[in-house]
Amino acid sequence: MKKIIFLFLLAIIGFQGADAQILKNAKKMLNTATAAGGFTEKDAADAIKEALVNGTGESVKFVSALNGYLGNPEIRIPFPREAKDVETKLRAIGMGKKVDEFNESMNRAAEQAANEAKSIFISAIKGLTVKDAINIVKGENNAATLYLQRTTSPDLKVAFQPKIKASLDNVNATKYWGDLITAYNKIPLVKKQNPDLTEYVTGKAIDGLFVMIAKEELKIRQNPAARTSELLKKVFGK
Prior knowledge:
Elements: H1 2-13, H2 20-35, H3 41-64, H4 84-92, H5 96-113, H6 117-126, H7 130-138, H8 143-170, H9 173-185, H10 197-222, H11 230-236
Helix pairs in contact: 1-2, 3-6, 3-7, 3-10, 3-11, 5-8, 5-9, 5-10, 6-8, 8-10
């Protein structure tokens, strides 16, 4: 058990490339902590779960706020790629303002839907086994993000789609889209377009959320000072 906890501790504090003396000192510190009634494997797994609940919670809070998507160039939802020709031609005929209104409305819909993710993430994280947790902290800097993508994406899509559809209607995105497509399809010789707007915004909203989770995961791995609960101090502060 000590060996596993030792590997877990090394991964968390970022000593994968440490020299032999540092590793020796870390092992001595671990042995001292354990002998003095330190943390167990369960403590370590619970700590990573808590850290991930905090990280995903911060990500959801960020993207669900006003301008969470629209104000962030990394995750802002653009005009559908498959309909890029629609945007170009509509701007060319003086409908740029309508295109901008539509772009804003898509991002507002994503912001309104994002809170649906919180409970899904919490459920997935609480289902982590000790082995899962250790694999995550020993993995790449985005190992937790990849785990969550793999285990929650289908549920996120199911939860997001009705909310996205309602939000698109609520912020007039559906109307803007209908007006734009109608105007575009009247242009002579163009190929008729009508991508599934709900499907598109749902996918982009989920992609953007995982971009932010990856950032939070990196912060969790690199900033021990951010671990403020008693459990996190107990495990990560040793």
